[in-house]
Design brief:
Layout: H1 2-41, E1 46-53, E2 56-63, E3 69-78, E4 81-83, H2 86-95, H3 97-112, E5 118-122, E6 130-131, E7 136-143, H4 150-154, E8 158-165, E9 171-177, E10 186-188, E11 204-206
Antiparallel strand pairs: 1-2, 2-7, 3-4, 3-6, 3-8, 5-7, 5-11, 8-9, 9-10
Length: 213
């Protein structure tokens, strides 16, 4: 009798452990599902777009996701070299022999009063920058009062690395090469760097003949 009672108690204990384990597994799964559903409601998705036309170019970053994108790091590369500011890209354009000839011709037109000025607008981005859902930010806009061959504008390779996070701490790295179809942002554990792409504090209006150095 005692053996039978012991076996019954043992079976009940095993059943209780199994039920507890099943309950814990169910709760864990439900918690994970709820967490995934919450993450989906705050998921940011950054993309970089470039528009070229005969009078210049525009570079924009857009949050196509449903949650705010908290930018932790931003890096700019011009012709494969890491630079700090959009001014470095402007200098690369100004040093280009083909563009420099156009700039000099336009300067003569400005002096004759038959042309306007080149307007360059820059915006910084980096740690503490936030892009809300459906928000677009113009990072660089070059407007020239003369026609520029497309090949001259795209010959200088420009790339951006943007590392950003969502409100729940999930992070992604976007590597965008201007003028190309880029891959989706890649998930990362965290944003290691805290770099920023600098700009002037206000829009800049420069003479069409940009400095050669």
């Amino acid at each position: 009798m005692n053996d039978r009672t012991f076996r019954l108690d043992f079976l009940i204990a095993v059943a209780a452990v199994l039920i507890s384990a099943l309950t814990a597994g169910t709760l864990f799964y439900q918690t994970r599902v709820i967490g995934d559903e919450f993450a989906a409601t705050i998921w940011p998705y950054l993309s970089v777009g470039t528009t070229y036309d005969s009078g210049g170019e525009t570079i924009e970053v857009t949050n196509d996701g449903v949650g705010p994108a908290l930018v932790r790091s931003a890096q700019l590369y011009v012709d494969g070299r890491k630079v700090r500011a959009w001014n470095d890209y402007i200098k690369a354009l100004a040093r280009d022999p083909e563009l420099r000839i156009l700039f000099l011709r336009a300067q003569a037109a400005i002096q004759r009063g038959s042309a306007g000025h080149a307007t360059i607008t820059m915006s910084s981005i980096g740690p503490s920058s936030t892009l809300h859902p459906d928000e677009s930010r113009t990072l660089l806009k070059i407007s020239l009062p003369f026609s520029v061959p497309l090949r001259a504008m795209v010959k200088h390779a420009v790339a951006l690395d943007l590392c950003y996070c969502s409100l729940n701490g999930s992070c992604w790295m976007l590597h965008a090469v201007l003028g190309q179809i880029n891959s989706d942002p890649a998930p990362v554990s965290h944003c290691a760097d805290r770099a920023a792409i600098q700009s002037n504090t206000a829009p800049v209006t420069l003479p069409t003949a940009l400095p050669a150095r």
